[in-house]
Amino acid sequence: NNEALYCIGCGAKIQTNNPDGPGYVQPSTLKKYLADDSKELLCKRCFRLRNYNEITDVDIDDDDFLKLLDSISSQKGLIVNVVDIFDYEGSVIPGLQRFVGDKNILIVGNKVDLLPHSVNQNKLLNWIQQKSKENGIKSVDQIMVSAQTGTNIDKLMTMIEKYRQGQDVYVVGTTNTGKSTLINRIISANSDVKDLITTSRFPGTTLDQIDIPLDDGHFLIDTPGIIHKYQLAHYLDEKELKAITPKKQLRPSTFQLRDGQTIFVAGLARFDFLDEKTNVVFYFNQGLVLHRTKTVNADEFYQKHLGEILNPPYDVTEFPKLHQEEFTSHRKSDIVIYGLGWVTIPANCKVLVHVPEGVRVAMRDAII
Ligand code: GDP
């Protein structure tokens, strides 16, 4: 059959001879396609982009990754640092500023679709800016986006144009912040660019990068995801992670608490309220059990029901022990458990928070 075939992704004429040319598919792929007409035919390049997560993730102190950062530090350009607004602490890259030199850093807070509409986004932006400062990052600006729904992607592109000053753009982020989703968003927003994307290798390293052409001969460069040990994700298996990760907008759950009451957030966290009477609001994934008990019985309850009523975790054998931290609010505040969610407490409220060893907790001004 001599009929020409075209890639449904980029429209290039399909060919099986030149692996580096447009429209290339492996002969075996073509054969399979011809045997089963119902499938979509994508060239190798589009297939790789569609099924994106192909850039290898690396550890923060991986030698090749440090080389990569070093090579960036001597280039001109803008750094776009993608963070997960649900897991700021797990997303922040320690030493980023030092690695990238004096380049501008634009902070992109992703997953804004998960926040209730009542969130004051300015407060959140201020918080992210302040946290960046604490981590030694001088951000030139920050923006909230949703790579998933497309919220503010246009604004982001305008900002990138503004701050890159005619130079290349490097997108950096830890794993699970949604960096791949965001890159795919950007690619499909510039759909004519699809067949111009190239995968290449950072010189002297084993690490791939993806270059997306900008309209002036410069590139948006996707770098490997960085694996960060503070992410709650690393203490949970895939199924548990699925259970804690919100898929849609958070819905608040309000509790009126009396003296000496405890709320468990599944088996993952525990809040003891030390005041007489308190109204608190929980913002966690809807499927997660919020279980109220008397604080005096809480230890025993946890031991007895961990992995049962209090799940996830499902497998309790390797789950780290809870440790506790005390917080007292001076204003209306959020107690944030990175990667999990937060609790809003009123002013002058004292709370004992228990989380697995290694998981970070912090207090911030309430964002709602
Ligand atoms: P990467 O490891 O940084 O490349 O992250 P991915 O793009 O693979 O995304 C990690 C997880 O976050 C996936 O489950 C995505 O579906 C999810 N995700 C990515 N962007 C968003 C977003 O804007 N909103 C929400 N709710 N989830 C997102």
TrEMBL record:
Extract the InterPro entries matched here: GTP-bd, GTP-bd_ribosome_bgen_YqeH, Mito_lipid_metab_GTPase, NOA1/YqeH-like_C, P-loop_NTPase
Domain named NOA1/YqeH-like C-terminal is located at: 278-367
Q: Name one GO molecular function term.
A: GTP binding
Give start and end of each G domain: 169-233
**NCBIfam families xref list:** GTPase_YqeH (TIGR03597)
- Tell me the protein's name: GTPase YqeH
